[in-house]
Amino acid sequence: MPKYLLIMRGTDESNAAMMANIDEMMATTRQFIEEMVKAGVLLAAEGLDDPGQGVVVDFSGDAPVVTDGPYGETKELFGGFFLLDVASKQEAVEWAKRVPAAPGAKIEVRRVPGSDEVPQAGQ
């Protein structure tokens, strides 16, 4: 079965709304994860630390340049993910529509290519 990554994207506003109700959000998220486990579709799920704690490695020049986060050029930040093993894109979308998310957040659904689909050296 194909794998799909549900990428959680938030803004400063949606992240603040989530943090204002963090206990409720965490309980709802735990319940959602349990539902995916019972359905046999969840492969992995992780949330990410505050973007201000990260760094950016920029390869646009001759040498990589490392700068501290947060990422000033973006309005949406990658906050975490769910990796699902489902039968179709539509099934992944149906799970994405059920993700507990604060108003203003978005879930990006992306297929993870199988190892047989990745170009090999010399091809």
Write up what this structure looks like.
The protein has 123 residues and is α+β, with helices and mostly antiparallel strands. The chain contains three helices and six strands, in the order E-H-H-E-E-E-E-H-E. It has helices spanning 12-20, 22-39, 89-96; strands at residues 3-10, 42-47, 55-58, 65-68, 77-85, 106-112. Strands 2-5-1-6 form a four-stranded antiparallel beta sheet. A hairpin with a 6-residue loop joins strand 3 and strand 4 (65-68). The mean pLDDT is 89.
Summarize, please.
This protein has 123 residues and is α+β, with helices and mostly antiparallel strands. 28% of the residues lie in helices and 31% in strands.
Give the assembly state of these chains: single chain
Rg of Cα set: 17 Å
Total strand segments? 6
Strand order of the largest sheet: 2-5-1-6
Main structural class: alpha+beta
How would you state the average pLDDT, rounded? 89
* Major β-sheet annotation: 4 strands, antiparallel
Ends apart, CA distance between termini: 25 Å
Envelope shape: flat
Give the number of helices.
Answer: 3
Helix-residue proportion = 25-40%
Strand content: 25-35%
Low-pLDDT regions:
none
Order of helix and strand elements from N to C terminus: EHHEEEEHE
Write the layout of secondary structure elements.
Layout: E1 3-10, H1 12-20, H2 22-39, E2 42-47, E3 55-58, E4 65-68, E5 77-85, H3 89-96, E6 106-112
Antiparallel strand pairs: 1-5, 1-6, 2-5, 3-4
Which characteristics define this entry?
123 residues; alpha+beta; four-stranded antiparallel beta sheet; two-stranded antiparallel sheet; 3 helices
